[in-house]
Design a protein that fits this description.
The complex is a heterodimer. Chain A is mostly helical. Chain A is built from 8 helices and no strands. The termini of chain A are far apart. The N and C termini of chain B lie far apart (50 Å). Classes of the chains: A mainly alpha, B mainly alpha.
Chain lengths: 199, 113
C-alpha cells in the first residue's frame, strides 16, 4: 500500500462533473479523511452488494466477506483510479474480478467438474419464450432454477452467460481443458432445462 | 448435439433478458464493518487525517470527535482512529438498527443508507 500519509494524490480530472466529484472523493479517501471514507462506503456499498449477491446466489454466507474484500482491494489500488470514469464502474471492475476469482477457485478444485457427471435423460424441450406470459415470470423461474442448481453448475452458467466469459477463457483460468468446460456447461444447461420444466 | 446448441442459444437469451435478483441494499451492519475495516487499514500505514483538517474540509464531526479535537494537545491525538474505541462502532457492526442517533457520526450515516 502506497497511499502515503496525507499527501495530495495526483488525480487527473478529465471526465464529466460526476467523474470529478468521484475523483475528489477518491482523493479525500486517499488522504485518509474518515468522513470521506464513510461517504465512499455509503455511496457504493449497495451497488456492489447487489452485484455480488446476484453472482453468488444462493451462497449468501459468502457475500459479505467478498463485498468487504472489494472495498479493501479498492483502498489498496485507489491511487490507480484516474478519475476519468465513474468510481462506481471502477469498483464494479474490482467486484467482477473478485467474483471471477471465486468461480475460478471453486471450479479449479479437484473433481469440481467431473464429480457432477450425471445423466439428465430424455428431457422435455424448453417452452418457447413467445409463450411466456411475462418477463417477470421468466426472471423468477430463472433464479428459482439457478438457486436450486449445484454450485458448480450455477457458477459455470453465470460466468459463461451473464459475465460473458468464453469457454476457452474459463478453461484457461481454471486450469481445465476447454472440452471439460464445454462438458460442464452442457450438463449445467441440461440440468437447468430439466429443473425449469419440472419445477 | 443440436439440442445442446439450442440450449446454448436459449441460455444466452435468458441471460440477456433477466438480471439475477431484485436490487437489494447492503445490510447496514455490513457497511459499518466495511467502514471499520477501511479506517483500520488506513491507520496501519500512518495517521488518519487530523480532525481539525477534516472539519476544515467541510465535514461535521460527531460530539466525541469534537471533544477530542478541542481537548487535543497534539496533532497525533487528533489523527487517532478514535472510532475504534467508540460504542457506536460496536453497536453498528452488530445490529441492523443500532440505537445511535447523534449527528456527525459515520456509523449513523451508514445506517441511514
Amino acid at each position: 500500500m502506497s497511499a502515503a500519509g496525507n499527501q495530495q494524490p495526483d488525480i487527473q480530472l478529465e471526465g464529466s462533473p460526476a467523474d470529478e466529484k468521484d475523483a475528489k472523493l477518491a482523493a479525500a479517501v486517499l488522504r485518509k479523511d474518515r468522513k470521506a471514507t464513510a461517504e465512499f462506503v455509503t455511496r457504493f456499498a449497495n451497488g456492489i452488494y447487489a452485484y455480488v449477491l446476484s453472482r453468488l446466489l444462493p451462497r449468501n454466507d459468502l457475500v459479505d466477506d467478498l463485498v468487504q474484500e472489494v472495498f479493501l482491494a479498492a483502498w489498496e489500488n485507489l491511487e490507480q483510479y484516474r478519475g476519468t470514469s465513474p468510481l462506481q464502474a471502477w469498483l464494479m471492475g474490482i467486484a467482477r474480478h473478485k467474483v471471477e476469482d471465486h468461480y475460478r477457485a471453486r471450479l479449479r478444485s479437484p473433481g469440481a467438474i467431473d464429480d457432477l457427471d450425471g445423466d439428465s435423460g430424455a428431457l422435455a424441450s424448453f417452452p418457447e419464450f413467445e409463450e411466456m406470459l411475462e418477463q417477470e415470470q421468466i426472471r423468477k423461474n430463472t433464479w428459482r432454477v439457478m438457486s436450486s442448481l449445484p454450485e458448480q453448475y450455477r457458477m459455470a452458467l453465470i460466468w459463461r452467460y451473464w459475465e460473458k466469459a468464453s469457454a476457452r477463457d474459463m478453461a484457461a483460468k481454471t486450469g481445465k481443458t476447454e472440452k471439460a468446460i464445454e462438458r460442464l456447461l452442457a450438463r449445467a444447461r441440461a440440468e437447468f432445462r430439466q429443473r425449469w420444466n419440472h419445477g | 448435439m443440436a439440442r445442446d446448441f439450442r440450449d446454448d442459444e436459449l441460455m444466452e437469451r435468458i441471460a440477456e433478458t433477466t438480471e439475477p435478483e431484485e436490487r437489494r441494499t447492503a445490510p447496514s451492519c455490513l457497511k459499518a464493518k466495511i467502514y471499520s475495516a477501511l479506517t483500520l487499514r488506513q491507520a496501519e500505514t500512518g495517521p488518519l487525517m487530523g480532525l481539525t483538517e477534516v472539519k476544515a474540509a467541510g465535514s461535521r464531526l460527531c460530539v466525541f470527535e469534537e471533544l477530542v479535537r478541542i481537548g487535543s494537545v497534539s496533532e497525533r491525538i487528533e489523527s487517532l482512529n478514535i472510532c475504534r474505541v467508540c460504542h457506536a462502532r460496536v453497536l453498528a457492526e452488530h445490529l441492523e438498527h443500532p440505537p445511535i442517533y447523534w449527528k456527525g457520526c459515520a456509523y449513523v450515516q451508514l445506517k441511514k443508507t
